[in-house]
Design a protein that fits this description.
By secondary structure, this protein is α/β, with parallel strands linked by helices. The chain folds into two domains: 1-42; 45-307, TIM Barrel (Alpha-Beta Barrel). Helix content is 53%, strand content 13%. α3 (82-92) links the parallel β1 (58-65) and β2 (94-101). The longest helix is centred in the first third of the chain and has 39 residues, at 4-42. The radius of gyration is 25 Å and the shape is globular.
Length: 313
């Protein structure tokens, strides 16, 4: 005989079990969300799985890390350390990048830029799979500067130099000392990223045709932008990188791709100074093919890094 009380209890039991399972599911989901949020907030190295997923992720060719000595290029400090730096890149969707040290950019002595370059190597190792290191020197004591480039390449594995910013410490690109820097970079097959005005850009492109050069920034005025695009278009060893000003002008990225070719246009942000997501939005919204967009956002910098570093004959 059927027990009516048991039948009455079964729906209640099913409801309780469903509630319990739902509670467990919600708890697991909440725990996973908290773990993900924690990783996002504090930043961290990429796991092998995420590294694999990130191989087609955005690759920023121009990042200045906040230095352990307090150097940071932000006028109003909001990303105060490397943890906050990485978390902000996560927020913007930047998974990889080439990093240099603010300490090295403002170096007054060889010890300063050595400390900055060592700092870069430390964070390349800490955030394994996420960053590639860049070596920065100043050419005042040229023998020590050249030794440092050799050390960064041989011991630290750097194949990228710069961003060099001569205005920060007051040196010129039109000196015998700077020619030695460019010659060594050429011999070692390193990428050289150099901040310039138009005249300096023209001089470097013409004087060092065998050196792989990346020029950051499209420019600030119409004439400046058009001239800089024209210089890169003419010199096949050079590349333009989109950080700073110019990219926000609708149609300018399209012009750069049309005249230079998508293979020599790189995404870069100049973070911590400038906003990474602004450049990304302009590239994503530009009137480009998906193939060209992929080259700009990650493919071209990957290719430059893969080809760099083997000493020329």
């Amino acid at each position: 005989m059927v027990n009516v009380d048991n039948l009455r209890r079964q729906p209640r039991i099913a409801t309780i079990m469903a509630f319990a399972m739902s509670h467990v599911h919600r708890r697991d989901v909440l725990r996973a969300a908290l773990v993900s949020l924690t990783r996002f907030v504090i930043g961290g190295p990429l796991t092998p799985e995420v590294q694999a997923e990130s191989r087609r992720g955005i690759f920023d060719a121009h990042l200045h890390i906040p230095s352990d000595n307090g150097e940071n290029f932000q006028w109003n400090l909001v990303t105060r350390n490397m943890t906050e730096f990485v978390a902000y890149l996560d927020k913007c969707g930047v998974r990889r990048g080439v990093i240099s040290s603010s300490w090295s950019n403002k170096a007054q002595t060889p010890e300063d830029y050595r400390n900055g370059n060592n700092e870069v190597a430390k964070y390349v190792e800490k955030y394994k799979g996420r960053f590639r290191g860049s070596c920065v020197i100043t050419p005042f004591r040229i023998d020590e500067a050249l030794r440092e480039i050799e050390r960064c390449h041989k011991e630290l594995g750097h194949v990228w130099l710069g961003e060099f910013c001569n205005y920060m410490t007051g040196y010129s690109y039109r000196t015998p000392e700077w020619s030695q820097v460019m010659k060594l970079a050429t011999d070692l097959n390193l990428v050289v990223q150099i901040h310039t005005n138009v005249a300096e850009m023209q001089y470097l492109a013409e004087t060092f045709p065998e050196t792989t050069i990346v020029f950051p920034h499209l420019g600030s005025s119409r004439d400046d932008i058009f001239t800089r695009i024209g210089i890169v278009a003419k010199h096949k060893n050079t590349h333009i990188e989109l950080s700073g000003s110019g990219h926000e002008r609708v149609g300018i990225i399209e012009k750069a791709v049309r005249e230079i070719g998508a293979d020599r246009v790189l995404y870069g942000s100049d973070f911590t100074i400038n906003e990474p997501a602004g450049v990304i939005a302009r590239v994503k919204n530009a009137f480009l093919t998906e193939q060209d967009r992929a080259k700009i956002l990650y493919g071209n910098v990957e290719r430059l890094l893969a080809k760099a570093g083997s000493r020329r004959g």
